[in-house]
Amino acid sequence: KGQQWEQALALLGEADMRRLSPSIFAHSSAASACAKSAQWVQAVALLAEAHELPLVPNHFTFSAAINACAASLEWQRALVVWDDMGRTRLAPDLVTCGAAIAACGKGQQLGQALQL
């Protein structure tokens, strides 16, 4: 289970090598695998890559990146991702809001959590 993020990234790389069309679903799933292993750098990189391709990140993509940051105690980075979601005009849903609040909670940032 701990190496699923590596397998997910390898599959994305293989798809790219085969010139398959990129998919936000594949990127989101890979970001989710990264979140489960607290690999926040990779999850945030996948989100950035989605913007560059250009794919349209969805709630699942943002939640996965925020959860990865939370799992790594990177509450400040989670809030950067939260702000990024706002710039895309994607309204927060219950899941992304909960993920951002959890990230603040893990970082003992009650004031930040209450501002969300």
What would you say this structure looks like, in words?
The chain is an all-alpha fold and 116 residues long. It contains 7 helices and no strands. It has helices at residues 4-17, 24-36, 40-52, 59-71, 75-87, 94-106, 110-115. The chain is globular and about 45 Å long. The chain starts with a helix and ends with a helix. The model has no long low-confidence stretch (mean pLDDT 91).
Oligomer: single chain
Structural class assignment: mainly alpha
Query: What do the pLDDT scores average to?
Result: 91
Extended strand count: 0
What is the makeup of the main sheet? none
Radius of gyration, in Å, reads: 14 Å
User: Regions with pLDDT < 50 over 5+ consecutive residues?
Assistant: none
Query: Which overall shape is indicated by the principal axes computed on the Cα atoms?
Result: globular
Summary, kept brief:
The protein is an all-alpha fold.
Q: What are the defining features of this structure?
A:
116 residues, mainly alpha, 7 helices
Task: Please specify the SSE layout and strand pairing.
Elements: H1 4-17, H2 24-36, H3 40-52, H4 59-71, H5 75-87, H6 94-106, H7 110-115
